Known about the structure:
Elements: E1 10-14, E2 17-21, E3 44-52, E4 57-58, E5 64-65, E6 68-76, E7 83-89, E8 95-104, E9 115-121, H1 132-140, E10 144-149, H2 168-188, E11 196-206, H3 208-216, H4 225-232, H5 237-247, E12 264-270, H6 282-286, E13 292-297, H7 305-314, E14 321-325, H8 345-348, H9 358-376, H10 384-387, E15 391-392, E16 417-421
Helix pairs in contact: 1-9, 2-3, 4-5
Amino acid sequence: MKTLSLLLVATTIVSGATFAAQTLYKDYPADVMPELSESGEFPVGVTTMEVTYPEAAMTMEGKMETRGLTLEVWYPAQKATENTLYSDETRSGQVFEIQADASRDVAIAESESKFPIVVVSHGYTGYRTLMYYLGEHLASHGYVVAAIDHTDSTNKDVNFAENPYSGFPSTLLNRSRDQVFTLNAVTDSEFFNASVDATKAGVIGYSMGGFGAVSTVGGCYAFNDEAAATFTGTKDPAVIALVKQALNTCAGGKASSDDTLSAWKAALALAPWGGQHQIFDVDSLNNINVPVLYVAGDNDDISGYDGIRWLFENTGSKDSKLLTIKNARHNVAPHPAPKEAFGNEFDIGSYLEPAWDTQKLNAINEHFALALMNCHVKDMAEFCDYLNVKGSSDQVLVEGKKPTPWKGFDDRWALGLVVEGK
Protein backbone atom coordinates (compact mmCIF):
# COMPACT_ATOMS: atom_id res chain seq x y z
CA MET A 1 0.00 0.00 0.00
CA LYS A 2 1.43 3.37 -0.91
CA THR A 3 2.00 5.64 2.04
CA LEU A 4 1.87 9.41 2.26
CA SER A 5 3.68 11.52 4.81
CA LEU A 6 1.33 12.67 7.52
CA LEU A 7 3.34 15.89 7.77
CA LEU A 8 2.48 16.99 4.23
CA VAL A 9 -0.45 19.41 4.34
CA ALA A 10 -1.33 22.06 1.79
CA THR A 11 -3.89 24.86 2.04
CA THR A 12 -5.74 26.38 -0.91
CA ILE A 13 -8.44 28.97 -1.40
CA VAL A 14 -11.60 27.83 -3.21
CA SER A 15 -14.47 30.29 -3.77
CA GLY A 16 -13.38 32.37 -0.79
CA ALA A 17 -13.22 29.40 1.61
CA THR A 18 -10.09 27.78 2.96
CA PHE A 19 -9.63 24.02 2.64
CA ALA A 20 -6.73 22.04 4.02
CA ALA A 21 -5.62 19.28 1.67
CA GLN A 22 -5.48 16.13 3.74
CA THR A 23 -3.71 12.83 3.57
CA LEU A 24 -5.93 9.80 4.10
CA TYR A 25 -3.43 6.97 4.61
CA LYS A 26 -1.20 6.00 7.53
CA ASP A 27 2.32 4.62 7.25
CA TYR A 28 2.23 0.87 7.93
CA PRO A 29 5.09 -1.63 7.67
CA ALA A 30 4.91 -3.46 4.35
CA ASP A 31 4.67 -6.81 6.17
CA VAL A 32 1.14 -6.16 7.44
CA MET A 33 -0.27 -5.28 4.01
CA PRO A 34 -0.75 -7.52 0.95
CA GLU A 35 2.39 -7.81 -1.15
CA LEU A 36 0.94 -6.43 -4.37
CA SER A 37 -0.35 -3.29 -2.65
CA GLU A 38 3.20 -1.92 -2.73
CA SER A 39 3.76 0.89 -5.24
CA GLY A 40 5.52 0.10 -8.50
CA GLU A 41 8.64 1.47 -10.15
CA PHE A 42 7.06 4.41 -12.00
CA PRO A 43 6.41 7.88 -10.64
CA VAL A 44 2.75 8.72 -11.24
CA GLY A 45 1.39 11.49 -13.43
CA VAL A 46 -2.21 12.61 -13.62
CA THR A 47 -4.22 14.78 -15.97
CA THR A 48 -7.85 15.84 -16.24
CA MET A 49 -9.60 15.36 -19.58
CA GLU A 50 -12.90 16.76 -20.82
CA VAL A 51 -14.30 14.48 -23.50
CA THR A 52 -17.50 14.58 -25.53
CA TYR A 53 -19.31 11.80 -27.33
CA PRO A 54 -18.72 12.23 -31.09
CA GLU A 55 -22.44 12.00 -31.76
CA ALA A 56 -25.48 13.08 -29.79
CA ALA A 57 -26.59 10.44 -27.30
CA MET A 58 -30.17 9.41 -26.61
CA THR A 59 -31.58 10.12 -23.16
CA MET A 60 -34.09 7.91 -21.38
CA GLU A 61 -36.78 10.33 -22.57
CA GLY A 62 -35.81 9.66 -26.18
CA LYS A 63 -34.17 13.05 -26.72
CA MET A 64 -30.84 13.41 -28.51
CA GLU A 65 -28.38 15.41 -26.42
CA THR A 66 -24.66 16.07 -26.35
CA ARG A 67 -23.01 14.04 -23.58
CA GLY A 68 -19.69 14.97 -22.08
CA LEU A 69 -17.57 13.38 -19.36
CA THR A 70 -14.77 14.54 -17.10
CA LEU A 71 -11.96 12.00 -16.70
CA GLU A 72 -9.09 11.81 -14.24
CA VAL A 73 -6.31 9.86 -15.93
CA TRP A 74 -3.26 8.48 -14.11
CA TYR A 75 -0.21 7.25 -16.00
CA PRO A 76 3.43 6.20 -15.58
CA ALA A 77 5.42 9.44 -15.55
CA GLN A 78 8.90 10.27 -16.80
CA LYS A 79 9.66 11.94 -13.47
CA ALA A 80 7.81 13.25 -10.44
CA THR A 81 7.39 16.92 -9.60
CA GLU A 82 5.26 18.56 -6.90
CA ASN A 83 2.27 16.40 -5.96
CA THR A 84 -1.14 17.70 -6.91
CA LEU A 85 -4.51 17.76 -5.12
CA TYR A 86 -7.89 16.14 -5.79
CA SER A 87 -10.99 18.21 -5.05
CA ASP A 88 -14.47 16.71 -4.69
CA GLU A 89 -17.52 16.93 -2.48
CA THR A 90 -19.53 14.69 -0.19
CA ARG A 91 -23.16 13.76 -0.79
CA SER A 92 -24.29 16.80 1.20
CA GLY A 93 -22.05 19.10 -0.81
CA GLN A 94 -19.15 19.46 1.63
CA VAL A 95 -16.10 20.31 -0.47
CA PHE A 96 -12.83 18.62 0.44
CA GLU A 97 -9.31 18.29 -0.93
CA ILE A 98 -6.98 15.31 -0.80
CA GLN A 99 -3.22 15.35 -1.13
CA ALA A 100 -2.36 13.19 -4.14
CA ASP A 101 0.63 10.94 -4.70
CA ALA A 102 0.83 12.06 -8.32
CA SER A 103 2.22 14.98 -10.32
CA ARG A 104 -0.11 16.87 -12.61
CA ASP A 105 0.41 17.09 -16.38
CA VAL A 106 4.00 15.80 -16.40
CA ALA A 107 5.47 13.89 -19.32
CA ILE A 108 4.46 10.26 -19.76
CA ALA A 109 7.22 7.71 -19.23
CA GLU A 110 9.12 6.35 -22.18
CA SER A 111 8.84 2.59 -22.59
CA GLU A 112 9.79 -0.10 -25.07
CA SER A 113 6.23 -1.40 -24.93
CA LYS A 114 2.97 0.52 -24.79
CA PHE A 115 0.92 0.76 -21.61
CA PRO A 116 -2.42 -1.06 -21.24
CA ILE A 117 -5.51 0.94 -20.26
CA VAL A 118 -7.78 0.43 -17.25
CA VAL A 119 -11.14 2.21 -16.99
CA VAL A 120 -12.48 2.93 -13.47
CA SER A 121 -16.18 3.58 -12.85
CA HIS A 122 -17.71 4.87 -9.60
CA GLY A 123 -21.06 4.02 -8.04
CA TYR A 124 -24.27 6.01 -7.66
CA THR A 125 -23.52 8.62 -6.55
CA GLY A 126 -19.79 9.29 -6.42
CA TYR A 127 -16.97 11.01 -8.26
CA ARG A 128 -14.00 10.14 -10.44
CA THR A 129 -11.40 10.12 -7.64
CA LEU A 130 -13.44 7.86 -5.31
CA MET A 131 -10.92 5.08 -6.03
CA TYR A 132 -7.91 7.28 -6.72
CA TYR A 133 -5.75 4.85 -4.77
CA LEU A 134 -6.32 2.27 -7.53
CA GLY A 135 -5.52 4.82 -10.22
CA GLU A 136 -2.24 5.81 -8.62
CA HIS A 137 -1.34 2.23 -7.75
CA LEU A 138 -1.90 0.72 -11.18
CA ALA A 139 -0.22 3.67 -12.90
CA SER A 140 2.89 3.07 -10.78
CA HIS A 141 2.92 -0.47 -12.18
CA GLY A 142 2.70 0.55 -15.82
CA TYR A 143 -0.97 1.20 -16.66
CA VAL A 144 -2.86 4.21 -17.94
CA VAL A 145 -5.93 4.44 -15.70
CA ALA A 146 -8.94 6.56 -16.65
CA ALA A 147 -11.58 7.22 -13.97
CA ILE A 148 -14.91 8.71 -14.98
CA ASP A 149 -17.15 11.41 -13.56
CA HIS A 150 -20.40 9.88 -14.83
CA THR A 151 -22.51 12.87 -15.82
CA ASP A 152 -25.92 12.96 -14.02
CA SER A 153 -24.60 10.49 -11.43
CA THR A 154 -22.05 12.34 -9.28
CA ASN A 155 -22.38 13.94 -5.87
CA LYS A 156 -22.26 17.32 -7.62
CA ASP A 157 -25.06 16.42 -10.04
CA VAL A 158 -27.51 14.76 -7.64
CA ASN A 159 -29.15 16.37 -4.61
CA PHE A 160 -29.19 13.12 -2.69
CA ALA A 161 -31.04 14.56 0.29
CA GLU A 162 -34.01 16.00 -1.61
CA ASN A 163 -34.16 14.07 -4.89
CA PRO A 164 -31.94 11.00 -4.49
CA TYR A 165 -33.06 9.11 -7.60
CA SER A 166 -32.96 11.98 -10.08
CA GLY A 167 -29.87 10.60 -11.81
CA PHE A 168 -30.71 6.92 -11.63
CA PRO A 169 -32.35 6.51 -15.07
CA SER A 170 -29.31 8.11 -16.72
CA THR A 171 -27.07 5.84 -14.64
CA LEU A 172 -28.86 2.72 -15.87
CA LEU A 173 -28.62 3.89 -19.46
CA ASN A 174 -25.08 5.23 -19.57
CA ARG A 175 -22.79 3.29 -17.21
CA SER A 176 -21.52 0.75 -19.73
CA ARG A 177 -21.71 3.22 -22.62
CA ASP A 178 -19.47 5.64 -20.71
CA GLN A 179 -16.94 2.90 -19.96
CA VAL A 180 -16.60 1.90 -23.60
CA PHE A 181 -16.48 5.51 -24.75
CA THR A 182 -13.77 6.32 -22.19
CA LEU A 183 -11.54 3.54 -23.50
CA ASN A 184 -11.86 4.94 -27.01
CA ALA A 185 -11.45 8.57 -25.90
CA VAL A 186 -8.18 7.89 -24.08
CA THR A 187 -6.87 5.75 -26.93
CA ASP A 188 -7.60 8.51 -29.45
CA SER A 189 -6.35 11.42 -27.34
CA GLU A 190 -3.33 13.37 -28.51
CA PHE A 191 -1.60 12.98 -25.13
CA PHE A 192 -1.93 9.19 -24.87
CA ASN A 193 -2.41 7.69 -28.33
CA ALA A 194 1.29 7.04 -28.96
CA SER A 195 1.82 5.45 -25.53
CA VAL A 196 -1.17 3.16 -24.95
CA ASP A 197 -1.96 -0.31 -26.24
CA ALA A 198 -5.57 -0.12 -27.36
CA THR A 199 -5.75 -3.92 -27.66
CA LYS A 200 -5.18 -4.54 -23.93
CA ALA A 201 -7.66 -3.10 -21.47
CA GLY A 202 -9.32 -3.80 -18.16
CA VAL A 203 -12.38 -2.32 -16.46
CA ILE A 204 -13.00 -1.74 -12.75
CA GLY A 205 -16.47 -0.85 -11.55
CA TYR A 206 -17.92 -0.26 -8.10
CA SER A 207 -21.64 -0.76 -7.37
CA MET A 208 -23.38 0.82 -10.40
CA GLY A 209 -19.95 0.92 -12.02
CA GLY A 210 -19.88 -2.86 -11.55
CA PHE A 211 -23.35 -3.06 -13.07
CA GLY A 212 -21.84 -1.35 -16.09
CA ALA A 213 -18.64 -3.40 -16.11
CA VAL A 214 -20.48 -6.74 -16.29
CA SER A 215 -22.30 -5.45 -19.36
CA THR A 216 -19.14 -3.92 -20.85
CA VAL A 217 -17.48 -7.35 -21.00
CA GLY A 218 -20.52 -9.05 -22.53
CA GLY A 219 -23.47 -9.18 -20.16
CA CYS A 220 -26.78 -8.06 -21.66
CA TYR A 221 -29.43 -6.25 -19.63
CA ALA A 222 -32.85 -7.89 -19.46
CA PHE A 223 -35.21 -5.40 -17.80
CA ASN A 224 -38.79 -6.66 -17.69
CA ASP A 225 -41.83 -4.38 -17.42
CA GLU A 226 -41.76 -4.34 -13.63
CA ALA A 227 -38.05 -3.53 -13.35
CA ALA A 228 -38.25 -0.85 -16.05
CA ALA A 229 -41.14 0.81 -14.21
CA THR A 230 -39.58 0.49 -10.75
CA PHE A 231 -36.17 1.92 -11.57
CA THR A 232 -37.29 4.75 -13.85
CA GLY A 233 -40.48 5.78 -12.06
CA THR A 234 -42.79 5.45 -15.05
CA LYS A 235 -46.17 3.70 -15.18
CA ASP A 236 -47.19 4.37 -18.78
CA PRO A 237 -47.04 1.06 -20.72
CA ALA A 238 -45.95 2.84 -23.90
CA VAL A 239 -43.12 4.57 -22.05
CA ILE A 240 -42.12 1.33 -20.34
CA ALA A 241 -41.76 -0.31 -23.74
CA LEU A 242 -39.46 2.51 -24.87
CA VAL A 243 -37.47 2.30 -21.65
CA LYS A 244 -36.90 -1.42 -22.12
CA GLN A 245 -35.81 -0.84 -25.70
CA ALA A 246 -33.29 1.77 -24.53
CA LEU A 247 -31.94 -0.24 -21.60
CA ASN A 248 -31.82 -3.79 -22.90
CA THR A 249 -28.49 -3.59 -24.67
CA CYS A 250 -25.07 -5.24 -24.34
CA ALA A 251 -21.42 -4.20 -24.16
CA GLY A 252 -21.86 -0.43 -24.13
CA GLY A 253 -25.19 0.00 -25.86
CA LYS A 254 -24.77 -2.65 -28.54
CA ALA A 255 -27.45 -5.01 -29.79
CA SER A 256 -25.56 -8.20 -29.00
CA SER A 257 -22.80 -9.47 -26.74
CA ASP A 258 -21.05 -10.44 -29.98
CA ASP A 259 -20.20 -6.74 -30.20
CA THR A 260 -18.06 -6.82 -27.03
CA LEU A 261 -14.74 -5.12 -27.70
CA SER A 262 -11.93 -7.65 -27.94
CA ALA A 263 -9.66 -5.20 -26.08
CA TRP A 264 -11.28 -6.07 -22.75
CA LYS A 265 -9.14 -8.71 -21.06
CA ALA A 266 -10.31 -8.53 -17.42
CA ALA A 267 -12.96 -6.97 -15.20
CA LEU A 268 -12.99 -6.21 -11.47
CA ALA A 269 -16.56 -5.87 -10.20
CA LEU A 270 -16.61 -4.41 -6.69
CA ALA A 271 -20.01 -4.90 -5.02
CA PRO A 272 -21.77 -4.80 -8.42
CA TRP A 273 -25.46 -3.87 -8.48
CA GLY A 274 -28.13 -5.67 -10.51
CA GLY A 275 -27.77 -9.33 -9.63
CA GLN A 276 -30.22 -9.05 -6.76
CA HIS A 277 -32.89 -8.15 -9.34
CA GLN A 278 -31.54 -10.57 -11.97
CA ILE A 279 -31.69 -7.89 -14.63
CA PHE A 280 -29.02 -9.56 -16.75
CA ASP A 281 -29.77 -12.11 -19.44
CA VAL A 282 -28.44 -15.42 -18.12
CA ASP A 283 -27.37 -16.75 -21.51
CA SER A 284 -25.22 -13.67 -22.10
CA LEU A 285 -23.62 -14.04 -18.68
CA ASN A 286 -22.89 -17.68 -19.47
CA ASN A 287 -21.13 -16.56 -22.64
CA ILE A 288 -18.81 -14.01 -21.01
CA ASN A 289 -15.27 -15.14 -21.76
CA VAL A 290 -13.49 -12.29 -19.99
CA PRO A 291 -12.24 -13.17 -16.48
CA VAL A 292 -14.29 -11.30 -13.88
CA LEU A 293 -13.17 -10.96 -10.26
CA TYR A 294 -16.23 -10.24 -8.12
CA VAL A 295 -15.60 -8.68 -4.71
CA ALA A 296 -18.47 -8.73 -2.22
CA GLY A 297 -19.18 -8.15 1.42
CA ASP A 298 -21.25 -11.02 2.77
CA ASN A 299 -23.55 -8.46 4.43
CA ASP A 300 -23.92 -6.16 1.42
CA ASP A 301 -27.16 -4.28 2.04
CA ILE A 302 -27.21 -2.37 -1.27
CA SER A 303 -26.31 -4.85 -4.01
CA GLY A 304 -27.11 -7.92 -1.94
CA TYR A 305 -24.56 -10.67 -1.42
CA ASP A 306 -26.82 -13.31 -2.95
CA GLY A 307 -27.21 -11.12 -6.03
CA ILE A 308 -23.45 -10.77 -6.47
CA ARG A 309 -23.07 -14.50 -6.01
CA TRP A 310 -25.76 -15.02 -8.69
CA LEU A 311 -23.69 -12.92 -11.11
CA PHE A 312 -20.54 -14.91 -10.30
CA GLU A 313 -22.23 -18.30 -10.61
CA ASN A 314 -23.68 -17.38 -14.01
CA THR A 315 -20.52 -15.78 -15.44
CA GLY A 316 -19.11 -18.21 -17.98
CA SER A 317 -15.41 -17.40 -17.93
CA LYS A 318 -13.58 -20.29 -16.24
CA ASP A 319 -11.07 -17.83 -14.76
CA SER A 320 -13.70 -15.81 -12.90
CA LYS A 321 -13.49 -15.62 -9.10
CA LEU A 322 -15.54 -14.48 -6.14
CA LEU A 323 -13.69 -12.78 -3.28
CA THR A 324 -15.94 -12.55 -0.23
CA ILE A 325 -15.07 -10.08 2.52
CA LYS A 326 -16.61 -11.43 5.69
CA ASN A 327 -18.56 -9.01 7.87
CA ALA A 328 -18.43 -6.27 5.22
CA ARG A 329 -21.38 -4.42 3.77
CA HIS A 330 -21.36 -2.34 0.58
CA ASN A 331 -18.56 0.18 1.11
CA VAL A 332 -15.70 -2.08 0.02
CA ALA A 333 -14.24 0.31 -2.57
CA PRO A 334 -14.15 4.03 -1.61
CA HIS A 335 -11.07 5.80 -0.28
CA PRO A 336 -11.08 6.63 3.46
CA ALA A 337 -13.56 9.28 4.51
CA PRO A 338 -12.29 12.86 4.40
CA LYS A 339 -12.68 14.83 7.63
CA GLU A 340 -15.50 16.86 6.08
CA ALA A 341 -17.64 13.70 6.01
CA PHE A 342 -17.38 13.10 9.76
CA GLY A 343 -20.12 15.56 10.66
CA ASN A 344 -23.06 13.28 9.93
CA GLU A 345 -24.02 9.71 9.03
CA PHE A 346 -25.48 10.87 5.70
CA ASP A 347 -22.00 11.71 4.41
CA ILE A 348 -19.77 9.28 6.23
CA GLY A 349 -22.19 6.42 5.57
CA SER A 350 -20.96 6.21 1.97
CA TYR A 351 -17.36 5.61 3.09
CA LEU A 352 -17.17 3.62 6.32
CA GLU A 353 -17.47 -0.10 6.97
CA PRO A 354 -18.61 -1.07 10.47
CA ALA A 355 -16.16 -3.97 10.91
CA TRP A 356 -13.26 -3.15 8.57
CA ASP A 357 -10.50 -0.57 8.34
CA THR A 358 -10.89 1.25 5.02
CA GLN A 359 -7.15 1.41 4.38
CA LYS A 360 -6.92 -2.38 4.71
CA LEU A 361 -9.82 -2.80 2.26
CA ASN A 362 -8.09 -0.44 -0.18
CA ALA A 363 -4.87 -2.44 0.09
CA ILE A 364 -6.72 -5.71 -0.57
CA ASN A 365 -8.28 -4.13 -3.65
CA GLU A 366 -4.87 -2.89 -4.84
CA HIS A 367 -3.38 -6.35 -4.39
CA PHE A 368 -6.04 -8.25 -6.29
CA ALA A 369 -6.52 -5.56 -8.95
CA LEU A 370 -2.82 -5.69 -9.83
CA ALA A 371 -2.81 -9.50 -9.81
CA LEU A 372 -5.88 -9.56 -12.08
CA MET A 373 -4.57 -6.99 -14.56
CA ASN A 374 -1.03 -8.35 -14.69
CA CYS A 375 -2.26 -11.93 -15.13
CA HIS A 376 -4.91 -11.34 -17.78
CA VAL A 377 -4.17 -7.95 -19.38
CA LYS A 378 -0.37 -8.09 -19.46
CA ASP A 379 -0.25 -11.91 -19.69
CA MET A 380 2.28 -12.14 -16.85
CA ALA A 381 1.68 -15.74 -15.78
CA GLU A 382 3.55 -15.46 -12.48
CA PHE A 383 0.87 -13.08 -11.18
CA CYS A 384 -1.92 -15.60 -11.77
CA ASP A 385 -0.70 -17.47 -8.69
CA TYR A 386 -1.88 -14.57 -6.53
CA LEU A 387 -5.40 -15.14 -7.87
CA ASN A 388 -5.34 -18.89 -7.50
CA VAL A 389 -5.75 -18.88 -3.74
CA LYS A 390 -8.88 -20.61 -2.50
CA GLY A 391 -11.00 -21.16 0.54
CA SER A 392 -10.56 -19.11 3.69
CA SER A 393 -7.62 -16.84 4.47
CA ASP A 394 -8.07 -17.36 8.22
CA GLN A 395 -5.36 -20.01 8.77
CA VAL A 396 -7.59 -21.97 11.14
CA LEU A 397 -5.69 -24.93 12.62
CA VAL A 398 -6.08 -28.23 10.77
CA GLU A 399 -5.14 -31.26 12.87
CA GLY A 400 -3.21 -28.94 15.13
CA LYS A 401 -1.22 -27.34 12.31
CA LYS A 402 -1.58 -23.82 11.00
CA PRO A 403 -2.02 -23.61 7.18
CA THR A 404 0.40 -21.48 5.21
CA PRO A 405 -0.91 -17.99 4.40
CA TRP A 406 -2.24 -17.04 1.00
CA LYS A 407 0.39 -16.07 -1.57
CA GLY A 408 1.16 -12.40 -1.09
CA PHE A 409 0.06 -12.26 2.56
CA ASP A 410 2.34 -12.57 5.56
CA ASP A 411 1.64 -15.09 8.29
CA ARG A 412 -1.23 -13.90 10.53
CA TRP A 413 -2.04 -10.89 8.31
CA ALA A 414 -4.79 -12.36 6.10
CA LEU A 415 -8.09 -12.69 7.89
CA GLY A 416 -11.73 -12.51 6.92
CA LEU A 417 -11.44 -13.33 3.19
CA VAL A 418 -12.76 -16.25 1.14
CA VAL A 419 -12.00 -16.96 -2.52
CA GLU A 420 -14.01 -19.25 -4.77
CA GLY A 421 -13.27 -20.17 -8.37
CA LYS A 422 -15.13 -22.04 -11.05
